[in-house]
Design brief:
Number of domains: 1
Largest sheet: none
CATH superfamily: Sodium/glucose cotransporter
CATH topology: Sodium/glucose cotransporter
Mean pLDDT: 86
Distance between the termini: 51 Å
Helix content: over 70%
Number of helices: 27
Shape: globular
């Protein structure tokens, strides 16, 4: 890092802090403003904020490690999740918006009732908003940016962690959700620009795309689908890379924490003006998340295999290329883009976790009648505490990829219950409580059981063990405890109008067939849009053309379907306001 680089980074940091200070008064005007921007966001702002949050400082390093270890096909660990995030577009976004919640855990006392529902709400507020959230922040974005700062500035780990977290905690605490949303908007494009910039320099250093393809084609790193060669029995198929792929697309996408949208996505949906804006925001998020951001990271990771073939820590290859390839000034832009990615993710997590604590624990159980300004101050204190806790976690994290896989496995035990609560009337608070409580013991027990019975580890069996191991506890808990009172179920169905099995409470006029067809069509369109540019850049012109054709056809069908949506499926802004007041 030279003087010009530091000037670029300093300008970016000052601009972010300035925006935070400018929005302090607006953010502090009330709880709805501090945590939801008064529910006034359009789809383009909310969707870009979702994408900026997912575009974190750790993600380029995660993708680089995946590509270097496995190849392009390794990205199915991320891509497969698009099946569920596209389901959030056409199924769950409208359900969340109709519920009128401020946070995901607030649903506990709308879908259920009684003391068990109240306990579940408070428990989830602390479990997801504080403990899980602090772990994720420290293990992913903080660790990612720390590695970048160590490579580019040669700072030690302590200095890197406290500098990065201190800056973000300050501006996000001051500006609240308004600052998060507005900075996310320009941070996303700064981060994307930096990613494209490094990809261009990396390919140029390799001698061009033709040289890159020529050198890597024999290695199998350019393949989009994992190999199946040499697997003859079922056990061998499941243990092969292709078996890993099957586990992702058949199981993983519906067996994880965010299978119905997840807390951060729910916060963005809740802040939209109306249901239509919520649907469009989630759709735009998926396009930006998978189709736009994938190719520059993958191209850079492939180039690193040629430029840095012997680097032991695969995740450090990405920041190492910044120091090796970029000239002064451009290097500063790249580091600033990492700050943008980091700050967008961290500010969201800090604000989101604080909203859980304030709305679903402190205001619900400790102090119900305080003024809004009091709750905002509590939220600001919690934000600072979350940042400090994330710093502690970061000190003990080395591999982003290992933590990512662990989280997906751990929350596989919870995903089925989160889907079923929208589909089956018999799910009750104890279903969720037990599923969450047993997830950690089950994952710790898994290696012992596999070793005892001589079972080889593979993704499919790992996931099935988590799903089945938790189900033998939460299903009996569901059936042996009292069902949710009929009045609560009737009110929930009247308010949310969910699909599935709800006996006499279900709205028979609801038509979910069009949503199902749009979900399938848009998922195919998204996959083709993601694959097409990569296929074209890797020299596979025919495959790229076919992907582009599929994308055009299926996006055309999706857009037509969205335009022809029945008015019954769209809740007006007035209805949303009424739902919000009812919920409050």
């Amino acid at each position: 890092m030279q003087t010009l680089d530091w000037i670029v980074v300093a300008v970016y940091c000052v601009a972010s802090l300035g925006l935070g200070l400018a929005l302090t008064k607006k953010a502090s005007s009330g709880v709805e403003s501090y945590f939801l921007s008064e529910r006034r966001l359009g789809w383009w702002l909310a969707g870009t904020s979702m994408a900026a949050t997912a575009f974190s400082s750790d993600t380029p390093l995660l993708v680089t490690g995946i590509v270097r270890r496995r190849g392009v096909w390794g990205n199915w660990e991320i891509w497969a999740l698009a099946i569920s995030t596209m389901a959030a577009v056409f199924f769950f976004s409208k359900l969340w918006k109709r519920s009128g919640v401020m946070t995901e855990v607030e649903l506990s006392e709308i879908r259920y009732s009684g003391k068990s529902a109240a306990f579940l709400r408070g428990f989830k507020a602390l479990y997801w908003g504080i403990f899980y959230n602090a772990f994720v922040m420290g293990a992913w974005p903080v660790t990612g940016l720390t590695k970048v700062m160590q490579e580019t500035t040669h700072w030690d780990k302590t200095t890197s962690i406290f500098f990065c977290l201190g800056l973000t905690a300050l501006y996000s605490t001051l500006s609240g959700y308004w600052g998060v949303i507005l900075t996310d908007f320009f941070q996303f494009f700064v981060a994307m620009g930096g990613a494209v910039l490094l990809a261009v320099y990396s390919v140029k250093a390799c001698g061009g795309m033709a040289v890159l393809v020529e050198k890597l084609s024999p290695t199998g790193k350019l393949n989009f689908f994992p190999p199946l060669e040499g697997a003859h029995s079922t056990a061998e198929v499941l243990s092969s890379p292709f078996g890993w792929f099957l586990g992702l697309i058949l199981i993983q996408w519906w067996a994880w924490k965010n299978t119905d949208g997840g807390g951060i996505i729910v916060q963005r949906i809740a802040s939209c003006k109306n249901e239509k804006q919520a649907i469009l925001s989630t759709l735009w998020f998926n396009i930006a998340q998978y189709a736009l951001r994938s190719w520059p990271w993958i191209i850079t990771a492939l180039a690193s295999l040629i430029l840095l073939p012997d680097l032991a820590d695969h995740e450090r290859a990405y920041p190492r290329l910044i120091t090796l390839l970029l000239p002064a000034g451009v290097r500063g832009i790249m580091v600033a883009s990492f700050f943008a990615a980091f700050m967008s993710t961290m500010s969201t997590h800090i604000n989101w976790g604080s909203s859980y604590f304030v709305n679903d624990f402190y205001r619900r159980f400790l102090r119900k009648d305080a003024e809004d300004r009091h709750y905002v101050r509590v939220g600001q204190c919690v934000s600072l505490a979350l940042a400090a806790t994330a710093a502690v976690v970061a000190f003990f994290t080395e591999s982003i990829g290992q933590v990512f896989t662990f989280i997906l496995n751990l929350t596989a035990a919870i995903g089925p219950v989160y889907i079923l609560r929208w589909l089956w009337w018999r799910i009750n608070p104890w279903s969720e409580i037990v599923a969450i409580a047993v997830s950690l013991p089950v994952i710790l027990l898994r290696p012992i059981v596999f070793q005892t019975f001589g079972i080889s580890h593979n993704l499919t069996l790992d996931l099935l063990f988590m799903i089945g191991g938790s189900m033998i506890f939460w299903l009996p808990a569901t059936l042996l405890t009292p069902p949710v009172p009929e009045e609560t179920l009737a009110n929930f169905c009247r308010k949310v109008r969910p699909p599935g099995f709800w006996r006499e409470w279900k709205d028979k006029s609801q038509r979910w067939g069009p949503s199902l067809r749009l979900w399938i069509a848009s998922t195919v369109a998204l996959a083709a849009t993601t694959a097409g540019p990569l296929e074209w850049m890797l020299g596979r012109k025919m495959e790229g053309f076919l992907s582009a054709t599929l994308a055009v056809l299926f996006w055309a069908y999706t857009i037509k379907g969205l335009n022809n949506s029945h008015t019954d499926d769209v809740v007006s802004a007035v209805d949303v306001d009424n739902l919000s007041r009812d919920s409050a």
